[in-house]
Amino acid sequence: MTIAVCLKWINASGQTDVDDDRFMGFSYADQAALEYALRVAENTNDEVIVVTAGPVGAEAVLRDAIARGAHRAVRIDIDRSHDSATIAQAIAQVVAHCALIWCGDYSSDRGSGSVPAFIAAELSFAQALGLVEIQVPADSLHPIRALRRLDGGRREQLEIHGQAVISIEGSTARLRRASLKGSMAANKQAIDIVTVNQVAIETPPTRAYRPRARTIAAPVGSSALDRVKQITDTSSAKGHGETVHLEPREAAELIVNKLREWGYQS
Amino acid sequence: MTDTDIIVVGAGPAGSCAAIAAAKAGKRVVLIERGPFPGSKNMYGGVIYPRILDELIPDWFEHAPIQRWVVRRSTMLLSDTGAFNIDYRSNAWGQAPYNGATAYRPDFDNWLAQQAVAAGAELICSTTVTGLLRDAQGRIKGITTDRPDGDLTASVVIACDGVNSFIAKDAGLYKSVDASNYTLGVKETLSLPKSVIDERFGVRDNQGVDIEILGGTSGVNGGGFIYTNLDTIALGVVLKLPKLSAQKKRPEEIIAELKRHPAIAPLIEGAEVIEYSAHVIPEAGLDMMPKMVADGLLVAGDAAALCLAAGIWLEGVNFAMASGMYAGQSAAQAVTAGNTSASELQSYTKKLNETFVLKDHKKLRKIPHLVLSDRVQHKYPGFVTGIVERMFRVENPHPKPGVRRILREERKKAGISLMDLVRDALTGLKGFG
Ligand SMILES: Cc1cc2nc3c(=O)[nH]c(=O)nc-3n(C[C@H](O)[C@H](O)[C@H](O)COP(=O)(O)OP(=O)(O)OC[C@H]3O[C@@H](n4cnc5c(N)ncnc54)[C@H](O)[C@@H]3O)c2cc1C
Predict the structure, then answer these.
(1) pLDDT (tens digit, 9 = 90+) per residue, B119-138?
(2) Residue whose CA is at the smallest distance from ligand 1 atom 52
(3) H or E stretch at A252
(4) Which of B42, B228, B239, B308 to mutate to test the pocket of ligand 1 (most atoms within 8 A of CB)?
(5) Of A92, B42, B240, B428, which shows the fewest CB atoms inside 10 Å?
(6) ipTM over 0.90
(7) Quick one: A93 and A220 in the same domain?
């Protein structure tokens, strides 16, 4: 079986919008993901394939991962300016056959952590995202037990079975060092390149965000100042915010209806 | 069968040139650097004389990451309040074939190492060499590193690991280590807008300035420097180690005092310190050089104490690049000949003797000691500025004093005997050739 790890090629120096070979690498979260994938694969004798989406320079992180023990590497030749959904769509097609897909929870170049969720949605895999603790079984892929961070210091316990996308925090594991011979061999290893044409990307039509028009009653008041205040004054509570106690399905329905009512959803 | 033909330790200027030369000669070369990328751990004052690259990279000046081409060189003598400046300018130095250039080491060293990679060398970073591997007869046959499965064998190891070379010491090539042969170099990088630097230093575009300073080091024997980058100034001091520790002064205090000197303060006014760095310099030239060749081992650059620190010249990078290149060439020849014994590798020292590398060191052998001597350090700056001050001061209604009188009086005031003055002048004349 094959275990995939998604690595994002980033500038680790903090200058996130400059590609400077000297400072490029992958986030701590991605490093932890690679470490867990290698551990699992060692236990089960599975193959680890590392995937990145980006230009030729990004192959450096793939070679680094191979030096540390990954078996195969694929670079998806795609412009990184695509949105997360498109990148995830491209990655999904390369990793669709994999048993587990490991990702960092978000990359340190202002990543939002959405790519793993999009990959899971694209492949209809289970998703366990934003994990803070993981236990992998000694000699099988499943079940992986994990803790997921929730709001307010709460934790959710998960048990992962079947094909799944897992994203984890950087603090969960320290990536092993590559051996010297491993680095030298990795410099020579071939990297598979998948061009964007080979992965069929359906880019959803994008258009500027325009909330739907809705009718607002004209402000009433005797003086112009009163009327302006009615529209602009934020100092007095206007009754926004409502706490509801509902079953998840009903709560979701309520939110969708409200969004529709406020013009955010058509 | 060895893992590779030649291992080069350290991707500084010496190591990268060794790797370029050996790879161009068709050998398998592994270049090992402890930093995450070449140059990441390296510091210096700021001026490189790269003409020696003509042989390895003929069009280097088109591609090297240069900040400014030096078109003005000054030597400044500082007394407590005065400054005597000798300044030479040639705009021709700003055009091919060029002379000196300011550059940042993380840029320059990385670029040079990439030239080695382009020539076919394999660069491995984030890896520290921890020792030498030897065969049963004690002959060097490779290195150990801090990486898992980290031993690597080769026919020749070239140590370019910089000052205090751990490898040269491990191989027993240094007789003994004496702190008085070293100076501590400390530097601040000061940020200013380019237009301000251009105006204050009288340059434009990518023209740059190199100022060497004698005096102004708070009574600790040493010297100072100021170099211009595009939008920063490198300002630093070089301090004799035993004197520094005896005087219990901190190097940053000495820099602060230099920055307050009336001749320096206006140059750097309003600048922000964006970097502070320090490094040791092998200062004693020929008097401290180790043996540079052993069976299967060559030593180049600062690792072999080849840095030239002789007053108005602080040149290490060009000596490192040249010695590295010659080491790479000799190692490649020895590998081709199938004999990497010390006697075969002596072609390296022969080459050093025939070229500027050891010729300059031999010629200037006495200069580092002279420049760092107490008299030159503590008496001559006051003596010279005293003479100049009186020659240019108009004290009417008094008539101008004669030059001989000024010389005599200022010499007495500075406490220099005529004998010492003559002796130092002769040493200087002989030393500078
Ligand atoms: C303050 C100061 C100012 C100077 N100003 C100038 C100047 O203006 N112009 C000039 O020409 N020279 C100057 N020099 C001298 C110059 O910096 C050196 O002579 C030059 O850097 C020597 O080059 P190198 O390649 O021999 O050594 P280095 O530049 O020191 O390079 C050694 C390399 O080896 C690596 N290394 C060390 N140990 C190991 C190990 N065990 N394993 C793996 N890698 C290792 C290091 O990380 C480094 O990259 C100055 C020096 C100082 C300190």
Answers:
(1) 999 999 999 999 999 999 88
(2) B44
(3) helix A248-262
(4) B42
(5) B428
(6) no
(7) no
Nearest Cα of chain B lies from the Cα of A178 at a distance, in angstroms, of 7
Model confidence at B302: pLDDT above 80:
yes
Counting every residue, how long is chain A?
266
Collect all residues from A whose CB is shorter than 8 A from any CB in B.
21-22, 177-184, 187
Phi, psi of B269 (to 5 degrees): -55, 135
DSSP reduced 3-state for A241:
coil
Q: What distance in Å separates the CA atoms of residue B202 and residue B209, rounded to the nearest whole number?
A: 9
Region for A23 from its dihedrals, namely left if φ exceeds 0, alpha if ψ lies in -120 to 50, beta otherwise = alpha
Out of 1.10.101.10, 3.30.470.20, 3.30.9.90, 3.90.1150.10, which CATH number does the structure's domain B68-102+177-286 have? 3.30.9.90
pTM: 0.89
* CATH architecture designation of domain B4-43+104-175+290-362: 3-Layer(bba) Sandwich (3.50)
Residue from B149, B151, B152, B153 to probe the interface with A (highest A Cβ count within 10 Å): B149
How many residues can be counted in chain B? 433
Q: To which residue do tokens 């021709």 refer?
A: B92
Read off the pLDDT of each residue in B389-395 and give the average, rounded to a whole number. Answer: 92
Residue B421 scores a pLDDT above 80: yes
> How many contacts does A have with B, using Cβ atoms within 8 A?
34
Selecting from B37, B40, B150 the residue whose C-beta is nearest the C-beta of A180 gives B150
List, for residues B34-85, the tens digit of each pLDDT value: 999 999 989 999 999 999 999 999 999 999 999 999 999 999 999 989 999 9
Chain B residues in contact with A57 (beta carbon < 8 A): none
Is it the case that residue A36 has pLDDT exceeding 90?
A: yes
